[in-house]
Structures are given as C-alpha cells and as structure tokens.
Request: fold
Amino acid sequence: MDIVVSPDGAGVSLARLDRAGRPDSVMSLSVDQFVDHVRETEQQDPRWVWADTATVYPRLLRAGVSVARAVDLRLCHAVLARSTYVPGGSGVADDPQWGAGDPEAGEAEPSLLDLPVEGPALDVSELAAEHGRQQAAVAASGHAGRLRLLLAAESAGALVAAELAAVGLPFDESTHDALLSAVLGPQPLSGGRPAVLESLAARIRTGLSAPTLNPDSAPELLRALRSQGLSVETTRKWELSQLDHPVIEPLLEYKGLARLHSANGWAWMRSWVREGRFRPDYVPSGVVTGRWATRGGGALQLPKQIRGAVVAPAGWELVVADAAQLEPRVLAAMARDEAMARASRAGDLYQALVDEGVVDTRAHAKVAMLGALYGATSGEAGRLMPRLLRTYSAATGLVEAAARAGERGEVVTTWLGRSSPSPPESWWERQRWAGSSEARPADQQLARTQAREWGRFTRNFVVQGTAAEWALCWLADLRRRLVTLAAPGDRRPRLVYFLHDEVIVETPTEVSDQVEEAVRAAAHRAGQLLFGSFPVEFVLDVSRVSTYADAS
DNA sequence: ATCCATAGCGCC
DNA sequence: AGGGCGCTATGGAT
Reply:
C-alpha cells in the first residue's frame, strides 16, 4: 500500500494510491494528527511516498515515530533521470518540476538538489504522478530488478540518515577536552593559539629567522623556507619531510597539531556536540558516485586522534564494523572475475594476492590494486600493473573499459544503474579544439591530459559507485534486522554512524552478540542482493568496544 | 563586510 | 601516484 505525503503550510496532505496509482480522497491533517496517523498506519506495513525524506521524517522522529519503508521521490528521480538503464522518452527525465534530468541542459552540475527544498510544495496528485512515472520508467528498463533495488536502497538510506541525525554519535566532551589538552595544552580562554602551538610557532620563527612569520600562511612560509636556501615548491608535509633542516621537525609537528585544533578542536566540539552526542548533517547520495556527503560537522573525516572521545555509555557497547577491501571485492563481482573472487574468499584479499604469487608483498598488492581502481599511470603501481592485468583480466578489463569510455566522453553506469555525468561543456570544447586544424601541439596535449583525467573519474565511478550501492544495501538490511532486537527495559540497539564502508551500532551489551550477527548477516545479504550467487565474499572487520579508538 | 579560489590535510 | 569528498585559514576580489 502506497501513501503519498505532502507537507503543506502548517499541516500535511496525504492520500492512498489505488491500484492504478491514483490518489483516492485526500486527507488534510495537522502535524500532530499526521504523527498519530503514521503511528497507527505503520501496523499495516505501508510504503510512504514523499518528495524528500529530510523535510518530513525528522518531524516524525522527533515525535518518536519511525517508519519501515518510504520512497524518496527526489533521490529516485535523480537516479532515474540520468540512468542509462532507463530508456529515453520514459518521461522521468524531462519534468522541469523535478529538476533538469539532462545534465547538458543546465550549466550547473546536476545535483540531488534539483528539487528545491524550499520551493513550492508539490501536492499529492503531483507526487502520485511522479511516482507513477518513476515506476513506469523502471518497468520499461531492461534492468528493472537492479533499478528497483537501487531505488529502495536510496530511499532506505535517506531514512537512516535522518535517524542517525536524530540519535547522534555518543561523544564524551570531557574525554575530548582531555585528548586535546594532552597534546595542545589547556584550552585557551581567549580563543588564541594553544600554548603548545604558540611555542612551536616561536621555534619555527627562530629557526627560519622570520620573527613575524605566521606559520598558517602557506605563502609566507614558502618565502621564509626559501630565504633559508631551501628549495621547495610547496609547503606540503611530504615535500617538507624530504628536507634536512632543524626547522622541519617543529614545523611538521605544528602542522599536525594546528590541523587538529582548527578542524576538531574545542570550537568544533562546541558547534557539533550537544548533550553528549555528535550530530553531523548527513546528505544521502550527496556525492556524484552515490556516496553520502555531510554538510557541517565534518563527519567524513573524524580523525583517529579524537576517536577516543566516542564512548558508549555504561551498559552499552559499540559494534564497529567495516567492510575489508570493499572496492576490489565489488569489482571482482561486477566483472564476474573468478580468479579475483577466489582471492576474495581468502579473507585478506591483499594477502591472497601474495599467496597466489601475483605480487611479492602485501604492500605491493595494495598499491597495485588501488592503482588499478584509481588509474595509476606511473611509479610502483604502474610497474605492478602488468601482472595484475594478466591474472585478473576480467576485473582489470572492466575498469580499463570504463576509463576508455570516459576518455571518449561517454557515460558509464554502476551495477545497479547510477550513471555518471557527462563531462562539462568546457571539456568538449577543449576536445573539439584539439581536433581542429588550428590546434597547436600544446592544445592537443592538454586535451589528451583532460581526456585521461575524465577517464580516471569514470574508471573509479563504476567501482566507487557500486561499492556505495553495496554499502546502502548492507545498511538497509541491517536496519531491518536491528528493529527486531531489544534488551530488558526496552533498550534497543541503534545505528549511530555510517561512513562509506563502515557502521557503528550502539547496543546494550546484552544483545551485542545478536548485533554482531546481524551486521555480518546483512553484509552477506547485500552481496546476494547485488550479485546473486556469484561467489564473492564480503568480509567484515568487526570490533566490540567501549570506545571507537579501540576499533581495529 | 562578503564572496571565492587556493593550499593543505583529514577521511574513505 | 591515481578516484571521491569537507573543512579551515588565507588572501585577493568585490
């Protein structure tokens, strides 16, 4: 049973859809009535259909109501409007109300924000119409099953994102303060540099004979280094670390600590941690490949230095699980590469490459594999590539083909049906110009460079995007399993963190066994949902800890 | 005062 | 090295 939901003004309109997908009589409810209605109707396992989970679901969550299933029309539209799995003329792409489906049509990059969140609300009949168009587009596709899975996963992900924001990650402010103070000195009350940074800055100024130097300024720092006779092009730490000069040691230490202070210091904590919970703002599918982004809080980069502040309350535990070498495993399955699938079943895929005699060390295996995924052209990875190509010809052939398609400006598509954007108009202009009679060799060189850059993007897109699909299915299936678990006192395990290939579940210790089992079962299920019986193993590293810092 | 690009670095 | 991000500080432009 599908029920369309449209916020309007102070309330909510909703209507059930009949078999033909048309709304029956429309109900107009206040928000409170809506919350009660959802709570009661959930018993019937409906599927809620709304334009945008982020505008509706938080209100329900605040009232303590969660839903099992929903369709996020905006996220689904963004997928369908661009997917090469959807035949042209399906009607999904060219509805201006839902944003430009054709990326060539507007100058702005197509984004998931095609439908303005603040824009005029769409009424239930418009939502029902869009829902109908989407279902028709899927049905007309030659890959209806995959698209249905992708759309369901996208929508479930949107529910999870809202739930993560509502729950927050347990974060102990005094532990964080202690971690910071231990390396930076006490929190400066005036807001200036902490004592340790200040004294490092003084050593740097002395060492470079630059009494007024601001070490946070890259141009100033570069000038000061050069005035000491050091030949450097940038102030990046890998370049600085090559130098032999007494100032390098305090400088590198300064850079590391300054970053901690500015990115995840006291000011960050005041902004993002409330009542012992860190609440970043997740943006499902915010990345072109389908990965999530965040808007504020920087949850994509919670550095290892402060993970000790993520602490489970007494009586609770954190089940931290991440998918080991997810992208190579996904690639093996997509490419139906039997040899690579065999390596995946060994647990540590990189070690398996060593054991199979493909490369000599685990470090080489990792470099070679990442090189294949990202399109490395030189160095160590380049040298190791021939062996990988020979041993895993199906897998490497798939990414090579994606790269060549991108070099030609073609669109590539993930396993479940997310298609890449076309290159920007400036890219095409550059290519056209390089092919014209007036083009100089330098123009042609630049065009080739840009073509290869776009090829590296499309190469990675198919793998990163399919890995994101696997992760969404994992997350969605895990979410379903978790609602069946509870400890005495109705204490329930809950998802509190998700980052690309990693989840954290905060759970009462009484049920942490079941949670770990659920996390593993969901990973196995995700593999089946995407790749059927193809024998690729998706291995998880699971830790049960009281603080995130202790996760392996 | 505000916007924007760049450098640099953290995460996957 | 090579893909994808978000964020901060800086410094120039408006």
Remarks:
- Chain A has four domains: 2-167, 173-269, 279-325+470-550, 327-465.
- DSSP finds 20 helices and 14 strands in chain A.
